Each structure stands twice: as C-alpha cells, then as structure tokens.
Amino acid sequence: MVKPNATRALAIAAAAGLLGAAAFAVHELAHHLLRREGAALLGPVSKVIVLVLFAFLVLLACRHLCILGLAAWEHWLHTGDELEHGALRAPSVSIIVPAYNEGAMIATVLESLLAIDYPNFEIVVVDDGSSDRTYLHALPYQRRRPDVECRVLAKPNGGKFDALNHGIAHARGEFVVCIDGDSLVHPQALKHCIARFADPRVGAVAGNVRVANRGTPWSAMQALEYIAGYGLAKRAQSAAGVVTIVPGPLGAFRKSALEAVRGYDGDSFAEDFDLTVKLLGAGWHIVYEPRAIVFTEAPERTLELLRQRYRWTRGSLQALRKRRHGLFSPRRAPLRFIALWYLGAEHLALPALHIGAQLLFVGGGLLFDIHPVVVCWWLQLIVLECAVLTFCVAVENESPWLLALSPLFRAVYMVVLDAARLLAAAEEFAAVGMSLDKVSRLGRLKGAQG
Question: How confident is the model at residue 447 (pLDDT cuts 50, 70, 90)?
Fold first, then answer.
C-alpha cells in the first residue's frame, strides 16, 4: 500500500495556503491600483479586457472552490481506511486484458498482474487479432502461477470495445476489472478497488492513473494534469458518487451491472465514457479509489499528445450527443444528468472561455496598453492554479518537484490542450471523418510499479 507521508502532506498544504494568501495579495494590489488610477482612465477596450478577465477569474475561482471543498471532504472521509470492511470477504474477480499488437509489453503487464496481492482472481487476456506475437508472448503465462488461472483467448480484430465484451462474456468472477494492454497495476490495487463495493449502490470504481514516464516537459506536465484530474476532479465527483469516466487503464465493475447495460458500445471513440454514462443512467454510483494505482505511458511528442486529446474529445462529444436526452431528464436519472452537464462544460464551455480570455488578453496587449490591473489579475489566475495543484500533489502523495511546472502548466500546457479540444469539437460538429490511431509505445513502463 502507498502510505501518505503526513509531514510532507502538511508541508505542501501549508505551501498551498501561502499561495492562496499570495493570490489574495495580488488581488488586493490590483484593487489598489484600480482605486489609485481610477477606472475612468481606462479606455473602452481596456475596460472590456478588465471585465472579461475578471469574470473568467471569478468563474474559475468559484469552480475551484466548489470542487476543492468536495475533494477535501472525500479525502478526509477516507483517509486512514485500512480495508477492515473488505477484509472478511474476497469475492472472485476477473481481470480482462484486451491486447492489440502489444507483443512488446504484454509479458511485463502479465508479470504485474501475477504480482497482485489478492487471494481470488483470474486473468483473461483477449488477443484482438494482433499481427505481431502478442498471443505467443502471452501463452506461457497460463501456467506461471498455480493459484491464478490465466486464460489467453484469440479473436478476429473488432476493436477494443469488442475485445472487452468478449472477455466479460468469458469472465467467471463476481466482479470484473478492465485494464489496458499497456498498463501496470500496483500489487495492492485490487484489494482497494473491491473494498469499495461493500456499498451496494456502487457499480464501478475508477482507479488512480499515474504517468510513469516524466522525463520530458510534455510528459511531466501530463503527470501534473493526471494528478490534478484525479486528486481534485475525481475526488470531488466521488463524494457525490458521480465519477464521470472510469479510465481504461484500471476500472472495476460489478459484473451484474455490466450485463444489465450490455457492456461496452462501439459507436464512439470513447467507450469508457459511454459505459460510465450508461451505468450512471441505470442508477449506479461510481466512485474513485486513490489507492488503486495503475501506471501508464504518456505521449512525449507534441503531435502524438494532440492526436490523443483530439480523439478523446471527439469520443466524449460523440457519447454526449448519443446520450443528449439525459441532459434534460434530471428526475429520471439524476446521476447521469450531473455527469453529462459536467462533461459538456469541461469539453466545451470552459475551453471556450479560457481560450477567449487568453486571446483577449494577448490581443489587448499587442494592440493597446495593458493596464496594470489586468496584469495583476492574470498573475492571480496563475497563483490560484498553483495553489490548487499544490493541494492535489499533497493528497496524491506525489513528488513536490512537479510543482515547479505549475506556472507553465496553466500558461502554456492548458492553453494548448484547450485549443485542441475546441478544434476537435468544431470538427465533430462539422462531421469531419477521423480514424482511430494507436499511440506508439516508448517502453518506459518497465519497473514503474515498484
């Protein structure tokens, strides 16, 4: 089990408090400048820039405060849980591993699964028509550990959703854990996932995805993005039982819940999000388990990163369009209603506001004199983001050195990602064709879960 370092967590939390105080100080400086120089001295364009940036800052601050409050509540609610409620029973679990051309990684993935500390599980590998030696590399693991049954199935290529459904159909466990063919699971992850099913309302548990390769600026900022997404957003969602995406690298499900919604669909590029929405629509709660850690490999090249996020955004919007009736039926399926509106805001509204505010700020700076108040508020936005990221690093027990990237994360990385999201949204609404591209593997995962 990954045990949090209380001293470091308190130190980082104190740093977050100092950053929050700095944000307040910057705001007071902006207010002082505005009173001293007078709003009447601002030109009409400068007034528009000031008002828009201030509105965006207030909106972002309110969002952060609401999510931060829920995330903190969820964190302290489950801090110190030691599996007492799940120790008396170890229900059977089937781990499904869909694999397409994962010959270079499948042995490492299966080694990590055979090292899992759980008394009652099986492994089902589904070779989805690979053209490499994935099937042959997986076969020897059928007899590697006598107390764990490992079956290797082969089928014609039908896509990841079809491979997962094939594996679920052959699963014998009461619970099903789906992972990606290039993910390394922490030895204690399964125990923590299954313990959350002690609540009969829970239909799925989202694992904690961590980036293994952090040697480049892009991959390090993706690590920070994942920490923020899981440390903040998913904790907040979990407090309400409405985690919006059960991630592909590690997701645990009640098999009965999967069978009730007929598993994964193949009519979108985001089968994980689509299945999550189906489960929420059926009334199941979905929670996040931070101790169920899984390691994945992030793209290190700019083009591959943008292609990945382009595909994720278009897939999510396809699922939103498919389930759009749920946007207007809060009484019929309240959990689905919340998830759909949240994802719509994350993929459309907030990126549009963010890019619009940045364009207005930069455009105003090039064409007009930027007023000191505007600069102060923009700096306040950066400081606010740094404070939030500091909280996330603390609760996720992550490396504090990542915080050095916080200013670049907000000023550069998120701008690039939001621009890619808006481009993907525009092409999705314009019905531009796309293909499913597989991200190339770099071989950075070996030894990550140690």
Answer: low
Dihedral sign (CA 320, 326, 327, 333): negative
Q: Which H helix or E strand runs over 257?
A: helix 255-260
Q: CA-to-CA distance for 445 and 439, rounded, in angstroms?
A: 14
Report the chain's mean pLDDT, rounded to a whole number.
83
C-alpha to C-alpha distance for 423 and 435, rounded to whole angstroms: 16
User: What pLDDT, in 10s, does the model give residues 50-84?
Assistant: 677 777 777 777 787 788 788 878 877 776 565 55
Tokens of 63: 């969002």
Locate 229 and state its tokens. 């997404």
Phi and psi, residue 299, nearest 5°: -60, 140
Contacts made by residues 194-197, CB under 8 angstroms, sequence distance 24+: 194/86, 194/90, 194/91, 194/93, 194/118, 194/252, 195/81, 195/83, 195/85, 195/86, 195/289, 196/252, 196/287, 196/289, 197/91, 197/252, 197/254
Percentage of residues in the chain with pLDDT exceeding 90?
41
Structural fold of domain 90-342: Spore Coat Polysaccharide Biosynthesis Protein SpsA; Chain A (3.90.550)
- Amino acid occupying residue 121: F
Alpha-carbon separation of residue 443 from 113, 138, 187 (angstroms) = 18, 17, 20
- Using the predicted structure, report yes or no on whether residue 170 has a pLDDT greater than 50: yes
* Residue 371 confidence (pLDDT) above 70: no
The domains of the chain are located at 6-78+344-429, 90-342
Q: Which residues contact 234 (CB under 8 A, 6 or more apart)?
A: 206, 243, 288
The size of the chain, in residues, is 450
